[in-house]
Design goal:
This protein is mainly alpha-helical. It has a single domain, classed as 5' to 3' exonuclease, C-terminal subdomain (DNA polymerase, domain 1, Orthogonal Bundle), CATH 1.10.150.20. Helices cover 65% and strands 0% of the residues. Helix 4 packs across helix 7. The two termini are 22 Å apart.
Length: 96
């Protein structure tokens, strides 16, 4: 969990300024202790998604695509189409 000093003044609002991340995604990230863009960047896509999975049962892979798209400034649909296998393999490696 991040210290309160790591939380942006506006809560998870800064996260919603990233492409693909709306209020629901920002709430899921916040429930996993990810409150800022800097924290999301530091963790990276797979680690951030795993933290969300641990705190939000049923988090879908669409969030994985959305996080990657947010960090690379691409539409999540493009990420799902072109990066699916790489991200799924990285997620599998991280869980084993």
């Amino acid at each position: 969990m991040l210290a309160s000093s790591d939380r942006p003044t506006g809560g998870s609002a800064a996260l919603t300024r990233l492409r693909n991340l709306g209020p629901a995604s920002a709430r899921m990230l916040a429930s996993a202790g990810i409150f800022s863009v800097a924290s999301l960047q530091t963790l990276g896509t797979v680690a951030a998604f795993r933290r969300v999975q641990a705190s939000v049962p049923g988090a879908s892979l669409n969030l994985l695509w959305a996080i990657e798209g947010a960090l690379t400034d691409r539409p999540w649909q493009d990420v799902a189409r072109t990066e699916r296998l790489r991200l799924l393999l990285a997620l599998d490696d991280a869980t084993n």
